[in-house]
Fold these 2 entries.
Entry 1:
Amino acid sequence: MQQQIDADQVRKVAKLGRLELTDAEVEAFTEQLGAILAYVEKMNELDTTDVEPLAHCLPISNVFRDDVVGPSLGTDNALANAPQRDGSFFKVPKILDDSSGA
Amino acid sequence: MSDLSYKVIVGLEIHVQLATRTKMFCGCALSFGEEANSRVCPVCLGMPGSLPVMNKQAVEYAMLAALALHCEVASFTKWDRKSYYYPDLPKNYQISQYDLPLGSGGYIEIPLEGGRTKRIRLIRAHLEEDAGKNLHTAGSFSQVDLNRAGTPLLEIVTEPDMNSAAEVRALAVELQRIVRYLGVSEADMQKGHMRFEPNINLLIERAGLQFRTPIVEVKNLNSFRALERSVAYETQRQLDVFLETGITMQMGNKSTRGWNDADETTVLQREKEEAHDYRYFPDPDLVPVTTTPEWLDEIRSRLCELPVARQMRYVGEYGLSDYDAGVLTAERATAEFFEQTVVAGADPKRVCNLLTQAGLKLANERGCDMSALGIAPAAVANLAQMADAGTVSATAASTILQAMTETGKAPELLAEEMNLVQTSDAGELERIVDQVLAENVQAVEDVVSGGKKSKKARGFLLGQVIQKTKGQANPKVVSEILDRKLS
């Protein structure tokens, strides 16, 4: 069977997900993720020529709410679980390379 | 080096905040200037177990904008997660649209000098949620305010069709006019309702060869001025760098720069290598959106004539100057008021003068639009007719317009009350002219003799007549009588 994922890819994915893995974990996950990918790979055996891509598993669309204001939590509730606060703000380590905004 | 020529090539990404009451996926009120983190809930804080639900108004605003921008509106569109870690993004992903945007293609016509327009093509227009705000003013740490997190944004991406800082600015201004016309965004620059990210490079020709400089993306500009200046600055900077190093565009040498408002320069921003690995995938928490033809028709019925088309029509149909037509079409309320007044039977140029010289100033002072000044277009049409007929002077008409907004009274009544009715009664004016001529024999002689003093003396006599009528004589009629008597 073809190798589905290597240790470097696991390290990269872990870094993107902000996960710190030991070498032993990298080895274990490489094997486990490889097995999962191999299992999913089985689906490539199916002929999907005339099958529409699936965007969502529920056969419904257009679930909306009206543009009506509901209750918010308020600052104190919002900050209740924060490790640190500064007045009304969440307090976080200094951000150096700011590229905030959507 | 004398045979060197170049042109700048710019494409724009624009984020427009939609004018909904609530956020994109939860019922928190949109806010500006509220206490930090007061307008948040489990959904926009990204709490485990919370589920987003689409705001129908936001989707409809986006559809309306897409139609107005001549986009093709997708019959099927969905939501994707764009994953990255940043303190202002509580879920660690932004809900956006990746491969099936709500709007594709389309264009914006921008006005150029001399009544011409240029078509700037669009690549796409999609909906997404905004992030929160980071503040760095507080020393050794940063502050995060999530009130803005989840605010609905329309992201519009243009083709690289702009070739000057002025064109880039014109596009931004035109888009602001369009979204305001449609009522889909307040587009208030001070409140960050429009943010721009230009992609800029140069096409240089030297000694018969073409060179392209590396593309630079300038992040998060939030004023027309900064946008225009950043493009102008980058044009010069890229030219200088090219002349010094000869470096041209290659795979992977695009860079991101920030705008320094204080010294009006761009500054290189370091980005981590894998920063753009966003791992998009469909959001399982949100079902897709299907737009039926009936729904689209209903949205299409809310469209209106867009500002640039209107501006051109005012020039062509009413003979207004480019400038005046631009002023009148800047806000939809002004344009509609103007047209209603013209339809009520007033001369377009007269109405244009009344509105641009008095009406808009009043609206501006009171921080409202024309429709909220408390005057009816029909009443303004009456006033315009009075000015045309010479019943009141142009200056008096402006004074009366202001009084109309203050009292709600009819212009005819106000003209009487304020003693602003001009006398055009030739018989009565003739008597006064005769009286003035009799009292000023020397001046009459000066005029009739036609010497150096003639013009001045005639002006003096005219002034005397106006004075005797306490400013109520129609100068045009008086002038005619004077001409007749003194020839």
Entry 2:
Amino acid sequence: MARTALRPGVLLLVGLTLALGLLGALPWLRLGSDPVWGRIQAGGRWRVGMDPSFPPFEFLDASGQMVGLDVDLAQALGQAWGVETELVAIGFDSLVDAVEAHRVDAALSGLTFDPRRTRDVRHSIPYFDAGIRLAVAADSPIQALSEIADGCVAVEWGSGGDAVARRLLRQSETPPFQVQAFPSPEAALEALATGVCVGVLMDTVSLRLAQAEGAPIRLLDPPLESEPYVVVLPLEARTLQAEVDRLLERFGQDGTLARLEARWFGAFVDGLSGD
Amino acid sequence: MSRWAFLSRRAPRPSPTAVHRALGKGPFRRGPSVEEKARDESPDPVGVDVVRSPQWSRRYRALGGLALASLFLAGLLWLYRPEDALGPGRTVRTVNPKMGVHTRLTDEVEPWKIRRTMAMVREMGAPWIVEYFPWAYYEPSPGRYLWDHPDLVIQAAVREGLTVIARLGMVPEWARPQGTSELYLDPERYEEFGRFAAAFARRYRGQVNYVILWNEPNLSLEWGWRPVDPGEYTAMLRVVYPMLKEANPEVQVLAGALAPTLAPPGSEWGMNDLDYLQGMYDAGAAPYFDLLAVHVYGWRFGPDEPPDPQVVNFRRVELLREVMERNGDRDKEVAITEAGWNDHPRWTRAVRPGERIRYTLRAYEIARTEWPWVRSLSMWVFRFPWDQKSYQDFYTFVDTDFEPKPIYLEVQRYARGEDIDGAWPEQP
């Protein structure tokens, strides 16, 4: 008697559980059907937008080919998936729109994370931090900004480094260092090389380029103001984003990113190298 | 005990209901409720012999509620007091009374950010601002005006001692054909635009005495994606100018706000600004504006680069001035309502940050010392409500979070009369 009475209730419960389960699994079902990833897999090609006017990340070589760190990274990603990489030249200000409009599968061009666009596009994890750093002479014992007591810090007048220096000075009651402004990044680096100043505050790209050209400087971690570069992807490209993130993480661990950086900037000499 | 019990403690007179109940007669011969009984039997905390009546208690509670609501309302009014929050009126201290900056508060919704913007402009030493007041935002349906936002902007500017140049434009949906851009001003709607402009001028009489009619009409984009036409623009001026003057005789009408462009004849994108201005004069525009608004960008050229009809640079304004003089408009002044240099690290038309500072200071100095016919020079752009994530962010003087950029601090030094010759560093 009791078993017969329970049967409809049990059936109802099982039905409800199944329905709820299906409802909960919907996002996962959608994940499996990422149209961008599907298209890349089916076509054996992924289209990457970049503005080739930003050396050494992307620029045109003597033969008019796009080359640079971002180009290598795009190709490394494509290679890992076993697909061809097609590079598409697009103006810097149109890159994100091109992703949103599905003209390309991704934009990889020294782009920074934009919290305002997270409803429109996806952002990968960072692959490079172009933020403002302190650099000192390669043989300097200084390991942090707080260790600069009497010397001065060189900045390019009006630059991001200048802005950070002014902010730090404004925020501290007793100035922790002197700031000297120079009309160009080259002049600021020259001041460091000639001992006029003991440090320089500058964006990481300029500092790494200086290192690539042989400047005997050492970059201190972490950046005083971070500016991470990310890959921008279409909003519905869940699987593609998961794949890009997975590979960027792997490239960070297996040294691929460091090798790419060394290829285009020279070896990274950081704050720990002197230890 | 209720925290409002003191309100019923002073009840001096028994209610008829209580009297009837005490006498055991009257129309309400019922026994006390459990609640009433408990309340009647409880000792009075201050030892006053109070005859408690539920009816009076309810009245006092109502009174208490009313008092509370009044307090709440007063609190709200205090919080949102528009005038007091602005503080006392201020004045701009500067060595250069022509200095200005284009603010961008159209989409700034937080009042404190609007006030902070104006305060920082004053502290920078710029007495002039240019601000955009879109018709589409403030007249969402014919004759229904929403002045809250412009009130906020203009009150804040005036309180900081700033002179406002109001740029009017952008057509509401109800005033343009379906499917057209918001910058499509149909000739049949000139009167409606004029009515809005007049309502604006009337409302802000004594506060806003400079009004720009439209923006960059020599670009197809800004003219609703139609072929540009100085004759049509002049026709609009002819309708709107007298309406503005009637609403506020003191208002100075600025025309033009022409974009610097080298567009070749017949271009679908726009018309060379020098040709467009001549076209305006040919169409009889002279009596219908009081000042010419001009946009001059330096791109990669310094401010002392000589003017050249084939080049877009800062001194291009001198060529526009020549057009004015050739057309007998020498007595009219020019207001430069957009200008500046950009220091984006990747944009091809950008300069180095230090060059941007140097050029900007020099430009203000040129306007002050060399151009007596320039009323004001407003640089594009003080701040955006949010990052544009494009080269536009590198035109600003402060970040979206109001962090001053080095250019802001250097302009401030200049406005305070500090030695600008020493402002730019020399090579080591």
